[in-house]
Amino acid sequence: MRRSRWLILAAIIGIVVFIGVTYAKRRVAKPPDVPAPPRLETGLDGRANDWVYTQSDGDRPRVTVRAKSFKQIKAPSVMELDGVELQLFHKDGGAYDLVKSAKAQFDIAGKTLYSEGEVEIRMGLRDGPELMGHVITIHSSGVHFASDTGKASTERQATFEFDRGGGTAMGAEYDPQTRELHLLKQVSLDWHSPQKGSLPMHVEAGEAYYKESESKVNLLQWSKFTRGALHMEAGNSTVTLEKGEIRSTVAEAVKGVQEDPGRRVEFAADSMLLDFADGMAVKSIRGDRNGALISTAKSVRTTVTGNTLLLDFVTVLKESVLSTAVATGKGVAEVQPVPVGGPMAPDTRTLRSETIRLRMRPGGEEIEAVETDGPGTVDFTPNRPAQPKRVLTGDKIWIAYAPGNRIQSFRTINASTRTEKPGQSVPLLTQSKNLVALFDPVSGELATLDQEGSFQYEEGDRRAAAASALLDSSKDLMILKGSARAWDSSGSVAADVINMNQKTGDFTAEGRVSSMRVPDSKGGSSALLSNSETLQARAQRMHSTERNQKVRYEGSSVVWQGANRVEADRIEIDRRRSAFEAHGKVVSQFADKPKSVASSPAAKKAPAPPIFTVVRATDLNYDDRTRIADYQGDASLTRPGLTVNAQEIRAFLAAPEAESSLEKAFAEGAVKIVSAAEKRTRTGTSGRAEYYTAEQRVLLQGDDPLLVDSVTGQTRGRQLTWWANNDRLLVNGVENRPADSLLRKK
Hints:
By secondary structure, this protein is mainly beta.
């Protein structure tokens, strides 16, 4: 419509006036020999037929006017024109606009021209059979023209056709000076693209202005756009044309929808700019202030909102298909499952960031990827009972989707997570430099969560830290790697790798394991399991179950409390049974309680060295309820000045308040006891033996007991008892066999 200067009938006004003046002058100046014209009817000042008027600018024609007849009426002072044609030539002199009106009246006093009947304007014509590319034909009636301004107007319906569409309006005004067409109300416009098979664009409005010089149409009050499956409603809108096609539209208070089989796309904004490709298919949409996009497919509804919303489309089969969406300014993208029956729906995922970018799969029905330009937060809200709620945040977020709009992976940097489990008031919190989450392609539930770089974990008083962590949701298993450490109010563990069961609290630590457990005030206490000292351990592997009530150490294991210490290949602690086991190369060490000494400067400067009971064996089984430590397999017990070797040694540990850690010890099988003090050695052998710490009494019996004294000689008897701290020896013989002693002369 760029060259559609329709309703230029106003130009007739000046030309008709010129014709009237010319006619009057010719009548006055007629030659004497010309016969006088017929007398005019009463009330007429003039009449003429088949008048033609042409005005040129040099060789270029400017205007040609034809009227089959006209007559000038005295009262009221009007001119009636019949069969009027007006040619207004363009600047190139070849094309012209043609105006036709069967009848018109010119009010001389009012300087207005009025056509009650039909007016037709055809624009952009050429002499010859071919027309120009954008011919417009306008039809209307009841048209008023102002001779002084050239403005034309009508309150009746106006219709117009052009080579790429047409339209109607109720009432119109045209200003030839500004080349603006004002359509008063009930505006309806249709545009067709020259591309074969392209869908037309239908536009409606309460009011419209067409600015020919700017190739723009302003739609006022309200506006509607329809193209195929696309429907849009708005307030005021501005349409920009190019070569007869809509190229862009700026609209206010927009709500739109595109309905396709299996898909519905809705969009809205306070202000919106639409750009159109060839064929008038939507190429892009920019929505400002409260921008929103809602895409509903078979199984999922995606909602994107932001202060600004940018949508890009591709043309598929002459239709616009969404390809990308960008939300900026408090952007929110929510993916919510649509109930379709069958398995229960996956989580609703809500992404928040200043800028969010969505990329759609071919066809525009499903999301392929989502990412943010900066920090963002993702909420995973469960739609199934007993499922946890998760919140993930990061400095930049990437989300990949599998077919069916099911989330496939989630990646972010400088990440933190928050997991709220049903029935638990304490959330699970994590932090790391990098995070990658993988989701089950069928259920959409979280499968694994891999966090690397300065990983930290918190759940109530439970804490953990490592170089990296992997959460396996299907097993409720968290694997910590690289300088891993976990701790709570009861203790801590450090290792190369720690596997933690999130549901049960069980864990396994491997590689350079170091653990610590604070004193447990509940229950009894002994030299082996004291409730007043911190229990520490080292091993290659550690297994903890039943909330740390059962612990197993494997590989060069060492457990100690203060000066008390146990080493073995494997150590097991069962706190519920108050049991302690050690297997393979067992070495235990227990310290006696320091004896009370008088307070003196000398005593403070030189404290007495601790006294240890050291036992070696293949296996150790200890029951804290009986305070009995059972050593089996090449057992050896050592105290200062005393060594006991046997196949089995049962050590009775003293009460906590006792000064000595060992109350007594019983030995079985190939017993050999060596007592050495002040250049004197006593060696006793028997099948069984008993040692009482407080008295330093040794009892030998079974297998023909023998005591060899480096000072006094040797003694045999059914039962031998001696006191290591003095020279006492008690020998019991058997019937018919007296005791046998071999004394060494001094």
